[in-house]
Amino acid sequence: MLNEKKEMPLMVRQSLDQTYDVIRKKSIKKKRTFNPQVIIAIAASACLVVGLGLSNDHVMASINKWLGFDDKGVEQAVNNGMLQEDHHSVTDQGVKIAINDHFSDENKLGLSFQLAFDHPSMLKHVENVSLDYRLKNGDGQYIEEFIPDTKPLKGKNRYTSFFDYQNPLIDEKSGMVQFNTLSDSSEGTIPKLKDAVIEIESINIFDNTGKLKKINGHWNLSLSNNKKAEEMIQYKIQNVSSAIQVLKARSTPTALNIVLSLKGIDKERDEKLPSDMVIVDEAGHEYRIKGLRSVSKNNETIISANFPISSYNQHKKLELMIKGIEKIHLIKQ
């Protein structure tokens, strides 16, 4: 049976060596907070799985994996058919890794892995399992590289801003592990995936003392091409603002991507933005961000973030409020 486990967000721009330390401490303490440098991240979403056994594929397939991220935009995307089934697997070093399904648009990318160990005893006293992997698109460019900083990056660009993962569901008896990841592009720049391949280089196994055991191998998993067209909605500002300039407001199936320009450079103001920014829809529902990216230059601050508002919601009018600054209205084009 599975013990109750919670997931924590990890920053892609933080080195994986530091990430290993986070996982070690989380395996022992169960909770950890950290101080991000470039990306401001807040409010780790919780995944509570109590009393579930992963004894076979049918049980694992019945779990609604994406509800655990507490992301309404992602849930809407999945419920409207954005989830692409893959079912491609590779066995190496006595471990079979399968990519069950995935979804992606320019704002977010979700991957669902299943691991099956030939020797279930390898999972005895294990508290956490993660993967070192790279996601390469069909044109050869690397979309994401979640690897330790002891290895060189192969890609020239970084498309994701931060990385969220659920503590894996681990069944010691069957030797099976379910591992799901969610990546976020605050600037909305994830390319369309076509003939993409996940290159898994290592499996990281942490016991209940935080000790790491690493299994190196080669698991290259192909992703199925997404056949469903992405529905997008553009928004424009209705009222002219002297303090806020909207550079981009576009929703995709997974999120509403907002890029703003704020006058001046104010570190104290920017640190409060994750909690001070909120969008309210026509029905009065509030939407908040989990993280944002802030870049200051030429006496202005560029803020980019994803709100959990799906294009499938078909909102005609939204109200963006920043505490202490201003309120603006966004209308569907």
Structure description:
- This protein has 333 residues and is mainly beta.
- 11% of the residues lie in helices and 43% in strands.
- It contains 4 helices and 21 strands.
- It has a 10-stranded antiparallel sheet. Strands 1, 3, 4, 5, 8, 9 and 10 form a 7-stranded antiparallel sheet that branches.
- The N and C termini lie far apart (51 Å).
- Residues 1-20 and 26-63 have low confidence and may be disordered.
If you compute it from the alpha carbons, what radius of gyration comes out, rounded to the nearest whole angstrom? 20 Å
User: How many domain units?
Assistant: 2
The coarse overall form would be: elongated
Give the distance, in angstroms, between the N- and C-terminal Cα atoms. 51 Å
Widest sheet, order of strands: 2-18-19-15-14-13-21-20-16-17
The chain-level structural class is mainly beta
- Low-confidence parts: 1-20, 26-63
